Amino acid sequence: MVNNKEKLLIVTRSTVYHNKSGGLETQLNNLVEYLKDYFDITILTTAYPYKKTPPKINQTKILRGVKYIFLKNSVPGEYGFTLYESLFWQVPFKHNIKSLNTNFRKQASLYYDKYLKKGFKVILSQSSSAQNFNIDTHQKLILINHGTSLNEIKNRYNSVKGLKHFIRFLLLDLPVLVIEACVNNPILFKKAFKIVLISNRLKKDFEKQHKIFVPKTVVIPNGINTNVFKPLNKNDSFTVVYVGRIDYEKGLDNFISVAKNLPKIRFEIYGDGPDSRDIKNQTPSVKNIIYKGSVSNKEIAKVFGTSHVFLFLTKRKEGMPMTILESLSSGCVVVTTLKDSSISGKNGYFNIDNVKKATNKIEYLYKNYKEYAKLSTQSKLYATSNYDYRVMGASYLHLLKKLY
């Protein structure tokens, strides 16, 4: 059978085969599931996960009808170390000189130049994965931008805990991110034909930080599978959940404070991360909190489907977390510190800015269940109309078809 589909190259550091429940990975998987009906897709990514011995050859696999190329000289799911990190941080302390040769952006560029450059007219890059690519005039590079480097500097600074973390921030995180923001990003944005921003909130930040490249931007929100994330029979006990990375920059200290203010309501925490041990040690002292640990995608759908409120008190500047969309699609009302003018309380999305307001909002929903039920139904309808992966996919398809 002759394949008449146009060829599309996607470059990404991580996929669902590296991280099953990550937001970036889930967004890409949903997008690929839609686009594979219209394009002959090849995904260039980092090494396939291994237990002990790194692969000695590049691996090509056909997975769910899509060709994946897993590069041997790379760290599974990671960009690897930059030149600065290798020379001034990684080598002196860990003596890992090989890190100089495992940077994914570098390896992807070398493989692309040698094997793929002549075969693809359009390249879709997750974040800065295709940063080192040499793009010819007849080719089009599309970037999917999930955040900005300047916002990440603020996030890293806000998450500093103690002198040790501050020294790391000052000597490692700050220099690397400043180089990204002031040198690498402008070069990459200049190469790009279009820059996809995943939310209107991100667009506002991008406009302030990269005015010259605003004409290249288009907003396409992330999409989720609304057939998987759907309302289920709600728990008998009114349940408030957090699902995500266990890190204090996600506001878990404030989550615990809200729980302490509402002893009659059940609170549950799902996920894993750098502060898991601390959270696990804290929660037994708060009788209405249960720390459940990490969960699979299927389990996340059940958690949101049976819970009443997703409490997301992040301290980070974020684009559009997949968990918020998954929660809305599951009829689980969102109470969060993330501001988004495109979603209102009528759609089951409430923006608050402190513990007291979060406490009051959850208590109100708990005591006014008929109104809560209406909001739950409305959130599902809103998510299906605006954030289904087919809505996202159709927007990308419209953008990509014009490039061939």
From TrEMBL:
<dbReference type="Pfam" id="PF00534">
    <property type="entry name" value="Glycos_transf_1"/>
</dbReference>
<dbReference type="InterPro" id="IPR050194">
    <property type="entry name" value="Glycosyltransferase_grp1"/>
</dbReference>
<protein>
    <recommendedName>
        <fullName>Glycosyl transferase family 1 domain-containing protein</fullName>
    </recommendedName>
</protein>
<dbReference type="InterPro" id="IPR001296">
    <property type="entry name" value="Glyco_trans_1"/>
</dbReference>
<feature type="domain" description="Glycosyl transferase family 1">
    <location>
        <begin position="228"/>
        <end position="380"/>
    </location>
</feature>
<dbReference type="GO" id="GO:0016757">
    <property type="term" value="F:glycosyltransferase activity"/>
</dbReference>
